[in-house]
Amino acid sequence: MTLIGLCTVCTIALGIIDRLASDRQEQLRKSSTKRLRVKLSQSGWDKDQVMEMDRPTLMDAAAEICLAEEQASVAARTPLYAEVRSKISSPGSSALRLRELK
């Protein structure tokens, strides 16, 4: 691998983990290789593939999982369009809806 290719790989790996909160970055860096492998295996990764990964690749994959978990958490807390729309409806539309239901 050329120096440019190696720098690109390092930049990509650093870019993924850098998008995590600093405490999550620290947790990943302190995690043992075995713990990273378990996390990936529990997330559905092929065990043979996980066993062949070196530590930087494991950390990169684990960072992707952490990002996906964070995004899912944010999405779960974000109200749906219909919920937001119903909260901002006017009092008149609520009265009209009550009349329609009767």
The overall average pLDDT, rounded, is 77
Uncertain stretches: 3-13
Enumerate how many helices there are, as a single number: 7
Number of domains: 1
In percent terms, what proportion of residues is strand?
Answer: under 5%
Radius of gyration, CA atoms, in whole angstroms: 23 Å
**N-to-C series of helices and strands:** HHHHHHH
The count of DSSP E runs of length 2 or more, i.e. the number of strands, is 0
Overall description:
It is a single chain. With 102 residues, the protein is mainly α. The longest helix is centred in the middle third of the chain and has 23 residues, at 55-77. The termini are far apart. It contains seven helices and no strands. It has one domain (3-101).
Name its key features.
about 100 residues; about 80% helix; disordered N terminus
Summarize the structure.
The chain has 102 residues and is mainly α. It has helices at residues 3-18, 22-30, 33-42, 47-52, 55-77, 81-87, 91-101.
Give the SSE map.
Blueprint: H1 3-18, H2 22-30, H3 33-42, H4 47-52, H5 55-77, H6 81-87, H7 91-101
Helix pairs in contact: 1-5, 2-5, 3-5
